[in-house]
Structures are given as C-alpha cells and as structure tokens.
Amino acid sequence: MSTAENRAVPEHVAIIMDGNGRWANARGLPRTFGHRKGVEAVRETVRAAAEAGIGYLTLFAFSSENWRRPEAEINDLFGLLKSFIRRDLAELHRENVRIRIIGDRASLRDDIRSLLEEAEETTRNNTSLTVVIAFNYGARDEIARAAASLAADVAAGRLQPSDIDAQRLNDRLDTAGMPDPDLIIRTSGEERLSNFLLWQAAYSELMFVPDLWPDFSRDVFFAALERFRARDRRFGGLSSAKAAANGA
Length: 248
Ligand code: IPE
Ligand code: IPE
Ligand code: MG
Description:
Blueprint: E1 12-16, H1 20-25, H2 31-52, E2 56-63, H3 71-94, E3 98-102, H4 110-123, E4 130-137, H5 139-155, H6 166-172, E5 183-186, E6 205-208, H7 218-229, H8 240-245
Parallel strand pairs: 1-2, 1-5, 2-4, 3-4, 5-6
Helix pairs in contact: 2-3, 3-4, 5-6
The structure holds 3-methylbut-3-enyl trihydrogen diphosphate (2 copies) and magnesium ion (MG).
C-alpha cells in the first residue's frame, strides 16, 4: 500500500552539499576550485531531481555559521551564487522550475538580496520542481525569527499565548507551505546536520554518503533514492506491514 508518507519518490529531498574544500585540497588546488566544481554538481542534481519527479529540492548553499570563514572565501561563494543566478535563471524558468530562498535575507547585501528576490519573483508561478536555496540559513536563527514574529502578534493582542502550537510556529518558518523533507542527504562523509532544517527534520530519513560534493552525480543521487525506497518510515506508529497484519 502506498501512502503519501511511503511514496516511492520522496516529495522533498534536502541536501547538505559538503566537501568542496577537501575535493580541491586532494588535487592541490585552492578551495575556490572546489566551489566552482560544486556549482556543476548543483546543475546536474537539479536536472536529476526534475527527472526523478521530486517536488522540492532544498540545497544548503551558505550557512549562518559560514561567516566564520576567511573573507576571500565568503566573497567567492557570494560571487558564485550571483553568477549561478545570472547564468541559469533563464533556463530554469524555461524548464518551469520555481525558485525559493530560505534563510535570513534581511542581513544580506542589497545586490544579493535583490538578485535572490528577482529569481523568486520571475519563477513564482512555475509548476514543476521547486528548488529551495538555503542561503545565509541557520535553523536556530529561523526558529528564533518565527518565535519573534509570534511574540509580536501576542504583544499586539492579535494572538493569545495559548494559541501558539506547532502548526502556528511551522507557518512562520521560512519553509512555510512546504512539505517537510522526506530525505536529507549529506555528502563528504560527515554525519551531522550543522544547523540545517532542525525543526523540519523531525521525521526525515538521514543519509550520509562518502562522495565529496563536486563528485555528486545523477548516479549517486539515484542510488540514494533507491536506498530511501527501502526505508521503513513509521512516524511513531507501526510499520505499514505490521499495521496491515493487525487489520489496520
Ligand atoms: C561545502 O564545502 C560548501 C559550503 C559549506 C559553502 P566546504 O567548503 O564545507 O568543503 P569542506 O568541508 O571544507 O571540504
Ligand atoms: C554545512 O557545511 C553548510 C553548507 C553545506 C552550506 P559546513 O562545512 O559549513 O559544516 P561544518 O562546519 O563542517 O559542520
Ligand atoms: Mg564543509
């Protein structure tokens, strides 16, 4: 039996794209070469996600903690985001891809913020794959901003404290209106979430693959989707096989 929770193809896949620096180091190249090659992996992954029929693909591109990196590397990452949107927006739009941005955009430079907003605006009504770019994103920051927005409504008398429940908080997150990720993939062998989608990951399947992000490919992606199919998601209940045996 197939339910929305046990679909063969996950509705939402989120990826922590890690390992660009190590990919470059292993070749004796500066880290920036790894980031550049990583953009090519992004292009291939977006195509593969559309081909697989995934509804939402979220890509962790820059975390709220990545500001701890040297300024030159930060500038490089911002430059790559800009050139990606400039070069790829028209084609993504033609392919009916919708772009959404999550993260704290208020503290971004004006040129970056307006470029991101232009990408969202241009593709707003597209109906195939939604590509969610997590940029200047940190889950604790996102949850704190959602809490502050609810607190403002309480202070203004629009909400009572007892009105606040998980659904209302969920609706104030940057991901409001999106399904939770069914599958979160992290590349490069690291096994942690690094402040990514902490709220939304409550029942996500986690998958850690050894490949460094620049080596991520359609094949690696499809293999991960195949492994996902074998996972038994219970959401606190019983597995579908046991539920069926019990006459549910
Ligand atoms: C991922 O690769 C890209 C970003 C975090 C922006 P890294 O730059 O973290 O690469 P490693 O982890 O140092 O290899
Ligand atoms: C997570 O990777 C952030 C992104 C992929 C954008 P990091 O490389 O920043 O994570 P840590 O520092 O190893 O936890
Ligand atoms: Mg890293």
